[in-house]
Amino acid sequence: MAICGVAGAQTPDAAKIATMGNGRGAAPCSACHGDHGGGQDAAGYPRLAGLDKAYLLKQLNDFASGARSNPVMQPNAKTLSVAEREAMAAYYSAMPVPAAAQHRDAKPVPDDDPGARLALQGRWSDKLPACVQCHGPHGVGVGANFPPLTGQPANYLIAQLNGWKQGLRSNDPLQLMQHVSSALSESDIRHVAAWFAAQPIDAKGATP
Fold first, then answer.
1. In a structure prediction context, what are the per-residue pLDDT tens digits for the chain, which is 208 residues long?
2. Which of 19, 40, 106, 142 has its CA 20 to 30 A from that of 200?
3. What keywords are annotated for this sequence in UniProt (predicted)?
4. Domain 104-202 is found in CATH 1.10.760.10
5. Which regions of the chain carry the CATH code 1.10.760.10?
6. Is 36 annotated as contributing to ligand binding?
């Protein structure tokens, strides 16, 4: 149920939009991101539950403005009003991370894996910093600019890294990800995505 604000305007019903759309063209978020915001592994749809509110809002605004390109999200975000985008960001940021997303991969990747080395140590010969230097311990995320990598489907992480590498995505701060992705091979991308997808969200005491 929508709630009236002090100026008589109604606060959008985020739960209704998530399950039914907004009635003006935006599809239900749950159709791609799951009933509990955990994402879909095979299709590469990202987890939204528990992500930083400001990060989620920036991505929705970027989709709406065209600053971030995606054939599914752009038309959906454009049909959401400013208030609806704000409501959806708040809704998903407050949602607990589903159990299924807390450890997506039943076969943990060992710490001597190439993906682990990139994630935890980087490759300084290529001026490539460790992913955790920006994205936090085990990739749990840091604020609005460095989202969680842990608990995201590997296919989603692969698609985003390739997007930056190919110039299809460019809404990162200071073009940091464009620089990082340019130094990654296809094998690097597969390995590091698999490693983050295999990490439990509460790895070594870390929480989102």
1. 454 444 446 889 999 999 999 999 999 999 999 999 999 999 999 999 999 999 999 999 999 999 999 999 999 999 999 999 999 999 999 999 998 888 776 566 777 899 999 999 999 999 999 999 999 998 999 999 999 999 899 999 999 999 999 999 999 988 999 999 999 999 999 999 999 998 888 754 444 4
2. 19
3. Heme, Iron, Metal-binding
4. yes
5. 11-99, 104-202
6. no
Is 4 annotated in a binding site? The answer is no
CA distances from 3 to 7, 25, 32, 50, 87 (A): 11, 22, 27, 23, 12
Contacts of 8 (CB under 8 A, 6+ apart): none
Helices (H), 108-175: 114-120, 132-135, 154-165
Annotation-wise, does 177 bind a ligand? yes
Q: Which fold has domain 11-99?
A: Cytochrome Bc1 Complex; Chain D, domain 2 (1.10.760)
| DSSP state, residue 109 | P
Tell whether residue 135 is among the known ligand binding residues: yes
Query: What is the pTM assigned to this prediction?
Result: 0.90
